[in-house]
Amino acid sequence: MAGMTADSPKSPEIRDDRGRFVTSAGRKPGSRNRVSQQAIAELRSLSDDAFRALRENVSRNDQRAVEFILSRVLPSGRLVEMDLTAEGISEAVAEGEVTLNELKQIAGAASALKNIGEIDQMRRDIEELRKLLCG
Questions:
Q1: 98 shares a domain with 121
Q2: Is residue 12 situated within a structural domain?
Q3: Assigned domain for 68 exists
Q4: pLDDT digits (tens, 9 = 90+) for 81-118
Q5: Which residues lie within the region annotated Disordered (predicted)?
Q6: Above 70 in pLDDT, residue 20?
Q7: For residues 102 and 89, is the Cβ–Cβ distance under 8 A?
Q8: Domain count of the chain?
Q9: Spatial CB neighbours of 27, under 8 Å, sequence gap ≥ 6
Q10: Higher-pLDDT residue of 25, 90
Q11: How far separated are the first and last CA of the chain, in Å rounded?
Q12: 86 and 67 share a domain?
C-alpha cells in the first residue's frame, strides 16, 4: 500500500481534515446480501421435510435424533428446585444439592436482578424529580 496516493484510482483512502477515514454511508443496518437471502429462503423451504425426517427418525428410536431433540429442548445445565431465599440457597449448598459453581451462577443472577431493581428505582426517582421540577 506504500506509494499509493489519495488520488490514485486504487486507493480508497480519503481522509477528512481531522485525519479520519471518510467512507460512504455503506449498507443499511440489518440489510442482507442477495446470497444470504437466497440461502435463508432455501432453508425455510426445507424445514417441513427436515421436521418430517426428524420425526420419522425419532419414531424409529434413532438415538442421534433423540439426542438432537433433547439437546435443543432441555436446559444446558441441570435443573434444581429450591427455595430462592438466602436461607434456602444456603441450605441447598450445605446439603450438597448445589455445587459451588452453581452457587456462583446463582449469585451472578441475583446480582443482575438486584441491579435491574436499582435501575428501575432510579428511573422512578428521576421521573419524580422531573415532575417536581417541571410542574
A1: yes
A2: no
A3: yes
A4: 888 888 998 899 899 999 888 899 889 998 998 999 99
A5: 1-36
A6: yes
A7: no
A8: 2
A9: none
A10: 90
A11: 62
A12: no
